[in-house]
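Supplementary notes for students who missed Thursday's class. We covered one full example, reproduced here. Read the sequence, then the structure, then the short commentary at the end.
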Amino acid sequence: MTGEVKGKLGFYGCKCFTTNNIFLEEYNLHVRFLTEQQFRQDYRAFYFSVLQILLRLGCDSDQKFKDVLNKISQEVDRRKHLDEASADRAAAIRCTYRPLHPHVYHLEESHLAPQFKKIVEYCGNVEASKEGLLKLLEEEAATRVYRFPVFERDFCRELVEELDHFEQSPAPKGRPNTMNNSGILLDELGFDEAFVTPLREQYLLPLTSLLYPDCGGRCLDSHKAFVVKYDMNEDLELSYHYDNAEVTLNVSIGKDFTEGNLYFGDMRQDPVSETRLTEAEHRITEGLLHRGQHMHGALPISHGQRWNLIIWMRASQERNKLCPMCNSKPSLVEGRGFADGFTKAGEAPANSQFMSQ
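Structure (token representation):
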């Protein structure tokens, strides 16, 4: 049975998703691709620079360059059919998969760290301020990156056990993006409605409203949530990038690992030549909150296995002005679920009561 592809009420994707920011893992390079002719024309002005980069990274023959073009074409085709494939996987998971820990799919107060609940309670005070909130958070060396406990350790353990159980099952699995080969899309597994959405609306929005009012923190009305896994036999690290989000929460949920710190540069609009990198340690149960356009990556783990829960939180009021992935006015297309978080003028999203006035 084909799954439902229609997005949640009022949310859309941007047409650029199928063509922009295609990651070539072998060469650590993002490109834009419509056709081979367009690809060559677009890069004609600096074509030899692109070739020099590819040559330096090992693309040193006509056949290897043809392989690059073939991989790009396959990725474009995959993206064109992504929503339909995702809906089919979600339908199959609902029919065939039996959870190990059903209670982890529903957010409960007992899942949350006491300090996190204290922080959220403070944010609900009419006299709450950014200055007061910062006294309850740990500020990282990177600008406007904040750390705080999110979950109880027992909950993290059971969540990872559930995710491991799903990974070992025969149920179909979709991966988060082209940069992460190992991970799980949480909406397909059934975490969106009763876990991620209330976490964003009831607990994270009060923090982001005070910390990031200049980049949509007061009106985060959608998200994309997924889990990534780093393992000595799978993905070890993650290349330098920015997120398709206004604000990102990255929570370390397990298991045992060494090294693999996050590293941050500057905002993506800043010159790379002026970038100063700073590291942030992963600590199980704790989350790192940062702006989505803040360039970052993950250093390789040297032992064990690391799982991280990632929530890309999006503000339609911000991204409707300019798509963060193509830097243009978004060209809207229907998508599954929250899609890419865009809305049409005159169409209120389903949870518009959480948007600023």
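Commentary. The two ends are 42 Å apart (CA to CA). The first strand starts at residue 12 and ends at 14. If anything here is unclear, bring it to office hours.
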